[in-house]
Amino acid sequence: MTDLSLHERARRIKLFLMDVDGTLTDGGVCLIAHPDGTGLAEMKVFNSADGAGLKLAHIMGIKTGFITGRKSPAVQQRAKELLVDYVYLGQATKMQAFEECLANAGVTADEVAYMGDDLPDLPVMQRSGLAVAVANAVAEVKAGAHYITELGGGKGSAREVIELILKSQGRWEEAIPKALA
To answer: Could you tell me whether strands 30-33 and 40-43 are parallel, antiparallel, or unpaired per DSSP bridges?
Structure first.
């Protein structure tokens, strides 16, 4: 069997799943103690280009999802704002969430792109039709990727992947006017 080219892989994509910390953020986790000592608040910084890309994916019929090891109200809120189809928080391992996404979306693994940055992402990447590593991913993740983004995590890498998918599918020109405000 011949290995598929990057664009052949991207042409098949119907579902784009991704990790969050290190892919949609720069990987930093900011915990802020409440002044009265009653607990902590978490702050995350998301890139607006990624947000625009995820909204465009939704408009163009590409389903999206987050699979992350942390439980975070900030991620839940961001997913709601961006109309993300599948959100799995607090996942010790990501494979069960991946399989549920496949079943719920009615797609095969070859029709899934997955973007990650660290070792817990490898099993899902190995099952995905298009495995993507962000530019600042660990070496093992880069070695297992079909594509390494030019942009780092939290710097527009998700938007970059959505553009790659839509261009490979011959739908980028159709998408441009739909992205205009």
So the answer is: antiparallel
